[in-house]
Amino acid sequence: MKTFFFLAVVFAAGAQAREPENLGALVEEMAVLERVLGEAIRSKIAGLVGSRHDLQALDGQTRVHMERWLQERVRTIRAEYLARQGILVSLQLGGMPSVRSLTNSLITTLARKAGTGWKGKVGSLKPDDFAGLKRLVDELDETRLKHGELTRDHHLVLRRASEGKKPTHVGDRVRQEISALQDRGGELQSDIDDEIDRLRRLLVDPAQDVSTDDMHSALLQAVCDYAVLKSLPDGEHLTLKVNQVKSPRELAQTGSQATYYVLAKPDIVECRQGAIDAEELRHRAYVYRSAAR
Q1: 237-275 pLDDT tens trace
Q2: 264 pairs with which residues across the strands?
Q3: Per-residue CA distances from 35 to 41, 42, 71, 92 (Å)
Q4: How far apart are CA 223 and CA 237, in angstroms?
């Protein structure tokens, strides 16, 4: 359940205090605003790794990992109402997706699927690029399957040996085969990790393709498309406070900063009606940066 935070300026009027009008309706509008802005950012990030159809082509386990990989980039969205000022929406975005965070399970799944390549803004991998990894993964699968079968055979041999029905040297031979398979499995896993690293190096960092500015543009476009603020007084504003998590290196260079977009309600209405576009809305906004808290 979402939690909203409200700050109402209280004025003394005799023994009574005033409250903002239409507060209940504003709460409902802010809930919608939180949802659509979050989806706008997730959709923008999803474009980095191909279409939803591409994700659905993978098996269930990998798709779960991919969904998590996308959604964690929108860390928090919180809406507040400031009486006589307007709505403040604070967004904290995670770092841009990196090929370093693509799960091993995703890459090995692509290798297992015959003829499957990878296409996305982070780069492209052809089916032939996965040939070496597919060979290693297939051998590891066979090794693990044989290991399981021999382990079951070994348990059967031990049981029969305890009953005097089978020579113990047979159990020794099976145990040696199991040990050899374990060693081979370790070697294969090490080779697989090296091959996955090689494939990652063929990709590029998406930060070069999709900038922070692109993400902010997506937010403003979402405001134009979905921000229905009927209960917000005409003289008040919608303010977007966007804080993007930076790497330690970036923090050391620039510090933590939030970007503010202060949008007048009449301008938002014009954008909703198609009289202006999102770029013009951004041009009319007050935009500034300050230290993030």
Answers
A1: 999 999 876 655 555 555 578 999 999 999 999 999 999
A2: 237
A3: 10, 11, 13, 14
A4: 12
